[in-house]
Structure formats: structure tokens, C-alpha cells
Specification:
- By secondary structure, this protein is of the alpha+beta class.
- It has 16 helices and 20 strands.
- The strands form 5 sheets. It has an 8-stranded antiparallel β-sheet with strand order 9-10-11-16-15-14-12-13. A 4-stranded mixed β-sheet has the order 2-1-5-4.
């Protein structure tokens, strides 16, 4: 579907008059959507002024921190002083500061607001696990971005408030640092937050899974409970999802292995004295093509991230879902939540994200078109969010309320166009995810394309690639990579 102008949709969202309690509730939901769409429009029309305000807020609260003082900033710091004095850094430069916080130093090192916990990488990024300090009001910013997703989706699909979402959401293990602060993945932090646990009822965020099932630390029990709830409410499910494509495939695999026990428990359980619907027993045919549509027949789309490293699962998801649309709705990381996809039902190969300028201060390091490497890391090379050029590739650099200053996230993005004045970016690759042997450099996007071309040879034989990995082999000269396929 062609991109819809968000500003034009605001009027349409307010037109239906309320004439009954149900209509009033629907009108209230539309009015709430219109408010969120208006906010998106305002943010994307005034990118540079919003960015200037955000940086001013960050500097006002953090200019007296040890880190910014060491950079030579004082209480009168402004945008020009920030650009001139604060260096562009990677995690290694911040690690000594972070380690002091980990060990219990409560002085204003990176942020004047107390560090509430540490966020760890989700496991999809390259390199070792990093600890990112965060503060309490970051949860409000994340919650704000989540609140924008369904108003955008409602521009493309109607009736999503008339059913439920089957989302497989899980918490992961967490640890305590010597300072007593928790270290855990960003999504675990969100699911355990009061914002998530005590969220007000919203028909667009009505899940089949109870919060207790999501927060269950035992992965098997959590999956089992969420799957049972999803099966019992299967006619109410309008969308199926997980955070990453791999998570949704793990859920389908769980159903393959445990469907008999799940069906028996549902039939014998208190929820229903007897299950007579034959489609609950779809799995016994050993035909898993389109299983998502067959078990949850009202599903309108899959809500999963299938960009970057997750692109390898697109074919398998199409097989299991019966070619349901796949919506990549938002772009986020442990360091910061960035933005959303204003065309959520586009083809996965066309996904572009609009960075919301209120989430942090964003700068971009141009990537050399010939070498694929970022330009010389000089603060003068950085480009503001409002001044990137269409078609160019950049490495993302962020400054956050929590105290990351001109931090290189490591994501390489390509500018694909603009929504109002806001640039839209396609995720290209992680800058340090490379196959690099015998001086050749192959990034994950190139590897994915190579696997897709090669796997086409399997189609005449009724086989496909479910997953793959690689290993360097230097036993022969020249060295090469061996690609392992799971069929």
C-alpha cells in the first residue's frame, strides 16, 4: 500500500459521530489516535528545532557531569560548544566511566540523574555484551514511542481494536552489579517496569498472554502458558508477533514439539469442558505450511523485526504464516529508542524508519561510498539529523538524556527519503559485523543475499534454508568461509 500522509489522516480519524456507548468508545480511540498522529506530524515537521531543544535539555541537566567537564564544557554550553569540544567516541572510551558506576560510584559521572540500572545488548549486535547506564525517565520516552505504533498501523488496517494480539514476549536473566544495580536486557527492563505492568487498558494493546506468563523466568513455562492462552483465544487473535523473527519461529517450533500436550491440556482444562473444534487439532496432519493462518484464522499480520540479521528468517516465516504481511514497526537499541516505520506493511526489503527527533540528539558520520567505512572520526565531519542527504549512508551517533555523548552506535543507515522534514532510514548493517579473511570484507547484508541466491537451487527439490551460520577456515590457502545451512 502506498505511504499515507499522516497529517491527512488526522481529520479522517475524527469524523465518526458518537451515538452509543460503543460508538463513544470508538470515537475516543480515534481521538487518541488523532492526537498521536498529530504529535508525529509536529515532530517530523520541526526536526531541527526539536533537535536543538533536546540537546539544550540534555546539556542543561548534564553539563555539570564529570565527563562533560573533562570535555571542557561549562554551564553556558550550547550546540556550538558541544560540537566543538565533545569528541565522537565508542564504548571503549566510556568503559572506564561506566565501570566506576558499576562498582558503586554515585557521583554525577555521565548523568546528574541517578543511574537506575544497566541495559545489556539483546544478543543481535556484534561484539561482547556492553553495559549501558540508564535513568528512570528513559522509560517514559520508550513508552511514548510504543504509544505511536498502533495509531500508525490503524491507518493501514481497520478493526484492530476488535480482537487481541498474540505476542510471545519473554524476560531474560539479569544480574546484580557490585553497586547493587541490576543489569538486564532493555526489553526485560521494560516488561518488569511499572509502566508495562500497570499500563491502563487499551484495546490496541490487548494481549492474549497475561502479564504473569510474560514475566515467568522459566522459558519453557512462559512459552507454554503463552501458547495455551493464544490457542484458547484463537478466534480473537488479529495479529501474531514477537520482538524478533527468530522468537516467533521459536514459538512455532515449540508448537510443533508440544502440540499434543497443549491440546490435551486445553481439552481437559477448566477453561472449556470439551474442545470440539477440529481445527485445534490442525497439527496432527504434519502439514505446517500456513499453520499460523489455520490456527489463528483472523490474523491480519505478523509483528516482528525482519531487518538486518533477522532477514534470514523471512522465507521460513512466509512458509508458516501463509504469506501474511510482516510489520517491522520500530527501530530501537539498548542505548536509545530511535523511531518508527510509517509504512509498517511494506515489503521487508523496503522497510525504512523515521527517527523521532524528541528521543535523543542524533548526528551522522558519513560512510565512504568506495570503501564502506565511516569517514575519519572528526567532530567536524558529523551531519545533523535535519541535514542528511538522500541516498547517502551514515553511521549513527547519539547523545542521550542518560549520559551517552556523541556515542557511535555502530549501525550503518541509508537515507531513503523524507516524511515531512524528517529523514527516513533503511538499516544497512552493523559496521563491525563482517566476514573478513584474506583482506576481503563481506558484511551481513551481502552474506544474506549470497545465501538467498544459492538457496534458490534447493527449491526444485522441495527444500529451503531455515537458518545458517559461518566459520572461517584457514587450513587452505587462500582462506575462506564455510557456510553451514540448516534445511
Amino acid at each position: 500500500m502506498a505511504a499515507m500522509n499522516v497529517s491527512r489522516a488526522i481529520g479522517a480519524a475524527l469524523r465518526s459521530p458518537a451515538s452509543s456507548p460503543v460508538a463513544e468508545a470508538a470515537a475516543a480511540a480515534k481521538a487518541k489516535d488523532a492526537e498521536k498522529l498529530r504529535f508525529i506530524d509536529e515532530m517530523t515537521c520541526n526536526v531541527d528545532s526539536v533537535q536543538e531543544r533536546v540537546l539544550a535539555e540534555i546539556l542543561a541537566r548534564n553539563v555539570d557531569t564529570e565527563y562533560l567537564k573533562n570535555c571542557g564544557l561549562d554551564g553556558a554550553a550550547d550546540r556550538d560548544a558541544f560540537r566543538a569540544k565533545v569528541p565522537v567516541v565508542s564504548y571503549d572510551a566510556l568503559q572506564p566511566y561506566i565501570q566506576r558506576i558499576v562498582n558503586g560510584d554515585r557521583s554525577p559521572i555521565l548523568s546528574t540523574h541517578p543511574v537506575s540500572e544497566f541495559l545489556t545488548s539483546s544478543g543481535t549486535s556484534a561484539g561482547e555484551r556492553k553495559l549501558m547506564p540508564t535513568i528512570k525517565d528513559e522509560l517514559d520516552r520508550r513508552q511514548l514511542l510504543y504509544s505511536l505504533l498502533m495509531p500508525v498501523m490503524n491507518l493501514y488496517l481497520s478493526g484492530l481494536d476488535k480482537g487481541k494480539g498474540l505476542y510471545f514476549l519473554f524476560v531474560k536473566s539479569e544480574t546484580k552489579t557490585p553497586s547493587g544495580l541490576t543489569a538486564r536486557p532493555v526489553l526485560t527492563s521494560y516488561y518488569k517496569s511499572e509502566q508495562f505492568k500497570n499500563r491502563p487498558y487499551d484495546p490496541y494493546h490487548n494481549y492474549t498472554s497475561p502479564t504473569a506468563a510474560i514475566l515467568c523466568a522459566d522459558a519453557f513455562q512462559s512459552m507454554y502458558a503463552q501458547m495455551v492462552c493464544g490457542l484458547c483465544q484463537r478466534h480473537e487473535v488479529l495479529r501474531v508477533g514477537a520482538v524478533f523473527a527468530s522468537g516467533l519461529l521459536r514459538a512455532i517450533r515449540f508448537l510443533q514439539l508440544n502440540w499434543k500436550e497443549l491440546a490435551a491440556d486445553i481439552e481437559a482444562g477448566a477453561l472449556s469442558p470439551r474442545v470440539t473444534d477440529a481445527s485445534v487439532r490442525e497439527c496432527c496432519n504434519d502439514d505446517w505450511a500456513g499453520i499460523v493462518r489455520r490456527i489463528w484464522p483472523n490474523t491480519k499480520y505478523l509483528d516482528v523485526i525482519v531487518t538486518g540479521a533477522m532477514a534470514q528468517y523471512i522465507g521460513t516465516l512466509k512458509y508458516y504464516s501463509g504469506d501474511l504481511p510482516m510489520a517491522c514497526t520500530m527501530y530501537a537499541s539498548s542505548e536509545c529508542y530511535f523511531g518508527l516505520n510509517l509504512r509498517p506493511l511494506c515489503d521487508p526489503s523496503e522497510v525504512s524508519y523515521t527517527i523521532m527527533p524528541n528521543m535523543g540528539y542524533f548526528e551522522f558520520l558519513p560512510v565512504d561510498e568506495a570503501t564502506g567505512a565511516a569517514s575519519c572520526v572528526d567532530a567536524g565531519n558529523l551531519v545533523d539529523l535535519a541535514r542528511v542527504e538522500a541516498g547517502r549512508e551514515y553511521e549513527l551517533v547519539i547523545t542521550t538524556y542518560a549520559g551517552l555523548n556523541r556515542y557511535r552506535v555502530g549501525d550503518v543507515l541509508r537515507v531513503t527519503g523524507f516524511h515531512n522534514a524528517a529523514p527516513q532510514f533503511q538499516f544497512v548493517r552493523r559496521k563491525n559485523v563482517l566476514l573478513s579473511i584474506e583482506s576481503d570484507k563481506t558484511d551481513e547484508a551481502e552474506l544474506q543475499r549470497a545465501v538467498e541466491r544459492a538457496s534458490a537451487l534447493l527449491r526444485p527439490h522441495g527444500a529451503s534454508v531455515a537458518e545458517y551460520t559461518s566459520q572461517a577456515c584457514t587450513k587452505s590457502i587462500p582462506g575462506h568461509y564455510v557456510i553451514y545451512w540448516e534445511l
